[in-house]
Specification:
This protein is 73% helix and 0% strand. By secondary structure, the protein is mainly α. The termini are close together. The longest helix has 31 residues. It is built from six helices and no strands. It has one domain.
Amino acid sequence: MNTLIYIVSMGIGATAVMDVWGIVRQPLFGIPPPNYRMVGRWIAHMSHAQFFHKSMTAAPPIRGEHVLGWLAHYLTGIAFAAILIAIWGSTWINNPAIGPALAVGIGTVAAPFLLMQPGMGLGIAASRTKDPTSARLQSLITHAVFGLGLYVSGRALLLFNSI
């Protein structure tokens, strides 16, 4: 399988696993899934040179923000999958291991902590939220689930490729 197709497939698969987690945790723990509309709004405002907001919900809506948010979410998952393969390469493709996948998944929590949350007015590592500790824990768990999704997707692709 072409490496680019592999990375795209794995990134989509891992992001989908993360999205399933977002849906499942609502009835289990009462935690709503992420609102990618706000991510789309944040990204759309960047085209107007506005990178930081006091509150994304107070920022004016942008046409297409919902689609843009979901597109960015999946493209980011693909980019993070590319990081895994850039570091561990064909060795990981031929024998997916959970350790590197979890390391990359958990490591990607730096992106929301240091970029997205501050840009959206939530502070570094959600420091301006009502419950920063809970927000941080949820981010960490979600990104660990993404790492698990990288592993599961890698294993599924290996199985698919052997058929």
